Amino acid sequence: MIENELTVYSKPSCVQCNATYRALDAKGIPYVIVDLSENDAALEYVKELGYAQAPVVVVDDQDHWSGFNPIEIERIAAHLV
């Protein structure tokens, strides 16, 4: 069960980021966007998670992924009630 909004760490003009927004919107999954180009702390955080590609979608500290991933979005949508 998703208790809070997802966080999507993204960058401007990112095709995979835009695809991720569209897929999350289509499933009614709430999220907030953090622009990595304007937030050094967020950039450091996603690097610490081991990612170098946007978007990085964070559900919680143990559940996150990088890139446009429809399978993960479907998994999250299945947990919405």
UniProtKB/TrEMBL annotation:
The keyword Transit peptide does not apply. One of its GO terms (biological process) is cell redox homeostasis. PROSITE patterns: GLUTAREDOXIN_2 (PS51354). Signal peptide: none annotated. One of its GO terms (molecular function) is electron transfer activity. Keywords: Disulfide bond, Electron transport, Redox-active center, Transport. Transmembrane segments: none annotated. The keyword Hydrolase does not apply. Residues 7-62 form the Glutaredoxin domain. Electron transport system for the ribonucleotide reductase system NrdEF. Belongs to the glutaredoxin family. NCBIfam families: GlrX_NrdH. PANTHER family: GLUTAREDOXIN, GLUTAREDOXIN-LIKE PROTEIN NRDH. This is Glutaredoxin-like protein NrdH. It comes from Microbacterium maritypicum (Microbacterium liquefaciens).
